[in-house]
């Protein structure tokens, strides 16, 4: 009886494994066929697409895809982030800078053949102005719009309430009116019906959630078709898996490498590494007493953190050099001002007078002077007697967060401050940040060439509404900062605007609600046997993926090897491994069967 | 037999004799002895870690060795991505794995024993109810349930113990119920009942002592699976972030890209640690089972 069951099990195991081998060996044939038509650029992603709906998605993975499949009025040059025409060919503004007229390019078509007109642009902007759900991702651009009209097919007229300096950097994906006007509820629309009707260098044709997104080259793109035939984003659970896939040639580009991986790939054959200056800042937010847009206190922030002296003392206990050296492996720059140094004109570094260099004794003295004295257990207390125990919320899936948390916990313990690390899911980080339900939390944003988007995050109007929603960052909400923010948005003289932006950053720095720790460099690698040099943005020390436009993917240069569709997986190895597994599995099952028989004999 | 022997004294001398006999049987199992010896060494090292080593080496802000260095004279097992000694991490990680393994196994066995004994002793609808409850937990995929629990609750030592404990008790409950049923059919239980022994007396004085040896053997085996469960949860990033554990070490090794960098010294020690401790507990558990269940002894025992 027992033997029969074991035999049955062994047999079913074999049966289950055989098709696996069959598919593994059949796969290369299929891959070869695809390859005959042209090159496929396969990009490994370690982030999922939060939404394919351009009004909702704001993860880097999603916004990148929107730039490839939807047009924008203007875009940023690969060379130096200069503004260049995209869907709009030219533009002018009235003397009072309140009325802007854009001329729309002729002959651009949606992927279903309908022409792209000024009405589509007006429809997109109007939808965002009237439908709060449609303003989720890019609402900051249209807050100040009074009216958007399309007097004819080629002309869009935008009137703003106040002058707005971001009119040439409206990074809003334009959607086709004939498709989206039928969508009543934007918040519930996933936009996953393939192919997605869009207009750009690529068309999204196949989406497998948590696996891959495939885009086909649009042969009718007005700049001319891309040299690759297909672009595929492949999701990976962890970066080591992505690197192994790159080594085996299963993918062509991998982004977001850890310093260890980047170093390990040095000298690997057929693999080229790209170190780009990052446009992201990495920040620790100290809850300064969060309030919602009605001014009502929300969340569970520690009262001690409402004191700017405590926040500054914490900043002095952070050794940024060590963080860059140890956590980033040297691949990053020391944190200072709010905007990263890649945008050199807006970047601001605290002058020596305002610097808060690493000095734990000084931080201890400052806390003593401020009246936060150590209790008998060594933990400091507020003058009211509440111990300084802080909850530090981190992204559980981000290794960098965990390591920064360890360091900060170690340094703050020397100030007599207890830090409890709370790694949670990305969604929980966002929820808790919006609800003000934290003492310290890790945050970070990719800044755009135009600083408006990230500057607005610190204003009072970025605070969440009483019903929830909103996209707050550090709950700074400071009258002087808001005044500087409003003035820079209305300032058209570049030099004057730069000055205002720097003053705003200075105010942000002195208030110490968000401590900028570093600007990580972007570490990427690609298969040099399948692709030639990529167009990076900017040209010097730039990046391939995560650009502020579509150049990196659109101008990819496949080699003859990539066009022939070779350099792929070594499926022989896969079959071999599977074979070994089967033999071993069979052997073990057999052994177990024998043993079972022996013990069964003993028992009976 | 000069002094009048009290029942208590008789009971104790019998217990002593049983223990000596058990040890004699246990000693014959070579695997069990090896497992026991390994466990004694590992537990001693883990308990003495704060005395024998400098715990400040675990604080990332207090070390200055180069990161991810291969084994050398100063760092016998190399360093991790923050420059901490992997030997020290593995050493301290043993504490976490053992504490969680033991605590979770204890919790699981307590729940399982209580449910099993009550179900078998009272029978009837109590048994039906308790056993359906047990079946419900038995068919739930334990790891998935544990992951869900530790995601919802705040992360920490207690959460992991709870998550493992409440998902791994059904097997114990079934085993204990079966054993209780056989014990309760024995004449001396009937006698105790006839003499007016209440539920508490029968369970406390007769059933539990008869069941406990089996429970003890099960516990030893449960510890092994609890340690694996702990490592799995920590590896998935659901562990206690403030303490070093073997699962957490493996997670940081993966996160850093140790595989790509070929940093075997970072991956092997925690992996071997888990394997050795789990093996030791399994060997001990097997040997104990033989002791308490004579039918499992081989021919010629």
Fold and architecture overview:
The complex is a heterodimer of chains A (604) and B (301). Chain A is 35% helix and 18% strand. With 604 residues, chain A is of the alpha+beta class. Chain A folds into 3 domains: 183 residues, D-Maltodextrin-Binding Protein, domain 2, CATH 3.40.190.10; 119 residues, Dipeptide-binding Protein, Domain 1 (Dipeptide-binding Protein, domain 1); 239 residues, Dipeptide-binding Protein, Domain 3 (Dipeptide-binding Protein, domain 3), CATH 3.10.105. In chain A, the strands form 4 sheets. Chain A has a 7-stranded mixed β-sheet, with helices on both faces. A 6-stranded mixed β-sheet of chain A has the order 14-18-13-17-15-16. In chain A, strands 4-5-7-6 form a 4-stranded antiparallel β-sheet, with helices on one face. In chain A, helix 1 packs antiparallel against helix 18 and helix 14 runs antiparallel to helix 15. The longest helix of chain A is centred in the first third of the chain and has 36 residues. The longest helix of chain B is centred in the middle third of the chain and has 37 residues. The mean pLDDT of chain B is 87. Chain B has 12 helices and no strands. Chain B is elongated, with a radius of gyration of 23 Å. In chain B, helix 3 crosses helix 7. Chain B has 301 residues and is an all-alpha fold. The chains are: A alpha+beta (604), B mainly alpha (301). Chains A and B meet through helix 6, helix 7, helix 11 and strand 16 of A and helix 10 and helix 11 of B. Chain B: It holds the Pfam family OppC_N. Chain B: InterPro entries: MetI-like, MetI-like_sf, OppC_N. Chain B: It is a multi-pass membrane protein. Chain B: One of its GO terms (biological process) is transmembrane transport.
């Amino acid at each position: 009886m027992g033997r029969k069951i074991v035999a049955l099990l062994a047999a079913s195991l074999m049966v289950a494994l055989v098709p696996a081998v069959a598919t593994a060996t059949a796969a290369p044939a299929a891959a070869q066929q695809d390859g005959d038509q042209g090159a496929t650029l396969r990009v490994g992603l370690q982030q999922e697409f939060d939404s394919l709906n351009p009004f909702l998605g704001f993860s880097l993975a999603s916004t990148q895809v929107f730039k490839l499949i939807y047009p924008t009025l203007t875009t940023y040059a690969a060379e130096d982030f200069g503004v260049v025409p995209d869907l709009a060919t030219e533009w002018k503004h009235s003397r009072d800078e309140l009325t802007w007229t854009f001329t729309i390019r002729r002959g651009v078509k949606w992927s279903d053949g309908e022409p792209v007109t000024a009405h589509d642009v007006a429809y997109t902007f109007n939808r965002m102005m009237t439908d709060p759900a449609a303003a989720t991702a890019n609402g900051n651009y249209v807050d100040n719009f009074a009216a958007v009209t399309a007097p004819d097919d080629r002309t869009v007229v935008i009137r703003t309430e106040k002058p707005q300096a971001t009119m040439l950097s409206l990074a809003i994906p334009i959607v086709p009116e004939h498709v989206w006007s039928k969508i009543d509820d934007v918040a519930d629309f996933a936009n996953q019906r393939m192919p997605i009707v869009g207009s750009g260098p690529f068309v999204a044709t196949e989406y497998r959630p948590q696996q891959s997104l495939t885009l086909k080259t649009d042969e009718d793109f007005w700049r001319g078709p891309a040299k690759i035939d297909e672009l595929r984003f492949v999701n990976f659970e962890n970066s080591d898996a992505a690197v192994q896939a790159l080594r085996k040639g299963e993918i062509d580009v991998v982004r977001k490498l850890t310093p260890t991986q980047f170093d390990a790939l040095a000298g690997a054959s057929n693999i080229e590494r790209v170190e780009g200056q990052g446009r992201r800042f990495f920040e620790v937010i100290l809850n300064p007493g969060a309030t919602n847009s009605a001014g009502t206190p929300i969340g569970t922030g520690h009262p001690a953190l409402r004191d700017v002296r405590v926040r500054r003392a914490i900043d002095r206990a952070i050794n940024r050099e060590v963080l860059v050296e140890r956590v980033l492996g040297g691949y990053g720059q020391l944190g200072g001002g709010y905007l990263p140094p890649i945008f050199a004109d807006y970047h601001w570094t605290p002058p020596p007078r305002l610097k808060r260099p690493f000095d734990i004794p000084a931080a201890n003295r400052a806390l003593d002077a401020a009246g936060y004295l150590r209790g008998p257990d060594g933990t400091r207390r507020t003058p009211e007697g509440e111990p300084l125990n802080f909850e530090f919320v981190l992204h559980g899936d981000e290794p960098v967060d965990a390591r920064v948390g360890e360091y900060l916990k170690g340094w703050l313990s020397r100030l007599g401050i207890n830090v409890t690390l709370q790694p949670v899911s990305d969604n929980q980080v966002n929820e808790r940040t919006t609800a003000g339900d934290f003492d310290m939390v890790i945050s970070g944003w990719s800044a755009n060439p135009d600083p408006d988007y990230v500057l607005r995050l610190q204003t009072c109007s970025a605070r969440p509404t009483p019903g929830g929603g909103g996209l707050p960052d550090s709950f700074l909400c400071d009258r002087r900062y808001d005044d500087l923010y409003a003035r820079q948005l209305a300032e058209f003289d570049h030099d004057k605007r730069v000055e205002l932006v720097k003053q705003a950053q200075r105010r942000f720095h002195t208030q110490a609600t968000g401590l900028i720790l570093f600007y990580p460099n972007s570490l990427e690698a690609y298969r040099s046997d399948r692709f030639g040099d990529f167009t990076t943005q900017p040209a010097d020390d730039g990046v391939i993926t995560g650009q502020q436009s579509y150049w990196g993917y659109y101008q990819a240069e496949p080699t003859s090897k990539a066009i022939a569709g070779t350099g792929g997986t070594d499926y022989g190895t896969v079959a071999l491994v599977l074979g070994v597994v089967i033999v071993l599995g069979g052997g073990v099952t057999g052994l177990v069967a024998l043993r079972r028989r022996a013990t069964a004999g003993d028992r009976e | 037999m000069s002094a009048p022997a009290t029942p208590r004294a008789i009971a104790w001398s019998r217990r002593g004799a049983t223990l000596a006999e058990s040890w004699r049987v246990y000693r014959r199992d070579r695997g069990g002895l090896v497992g026991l010896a390994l466990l004694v060494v590992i537990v001693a090292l883990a308990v003495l870690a704060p005395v024998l080593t400098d715990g400040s080496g675990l604080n990332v802000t207090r070390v200055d060795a180069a990161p991810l260095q291969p084994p050398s004279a100063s760092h016998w097992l190399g360093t991790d991505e923050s420059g901490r000694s992997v030997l020290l991490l593995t050493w301290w990680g043993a504490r976490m794995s053992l504490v969680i393994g033991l605590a979770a196994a204890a919790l699981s066995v307590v729940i399982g024993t209580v449910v099993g004994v009550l179900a078998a002793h009272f029978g009837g609808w109590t048994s039906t109810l308790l056993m359906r409850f047990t079946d419900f937990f038995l068919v739930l995929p334990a790891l998935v349930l544990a992951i869900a629990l530790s995601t919802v609750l705040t992360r920490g030592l207690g959460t992991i113990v709870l998550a493992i404990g409440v998902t791994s008790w059904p097997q114990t409950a079934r085993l204990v119920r079966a054993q209780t049923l056989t014990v309760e059919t024995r004449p001396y239980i009937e006698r105790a009942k006839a003499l007016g022994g209440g539920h508490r007396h029968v369970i406390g004085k007769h059933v539990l002592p008869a069941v406990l040896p089996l429970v003890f053997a099960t516990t030893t085996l449960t510890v092994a699976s609890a340690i694996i469960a702990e490592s799995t949860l920590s590896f998935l990033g659901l562990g206690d972030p403030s303490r070093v554990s073997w699962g957490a070490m493996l997670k940081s090794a993966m996160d850093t890209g140790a595989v790509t960098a070929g940093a075997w010294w970072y991956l092997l020690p925690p992996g071997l640690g888990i394997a050795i401790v789990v093996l030791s507990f399994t060997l001990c558990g097997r040997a104990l089972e033989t002791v308490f269940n004579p039918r499992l002894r081989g021919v010629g025992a």
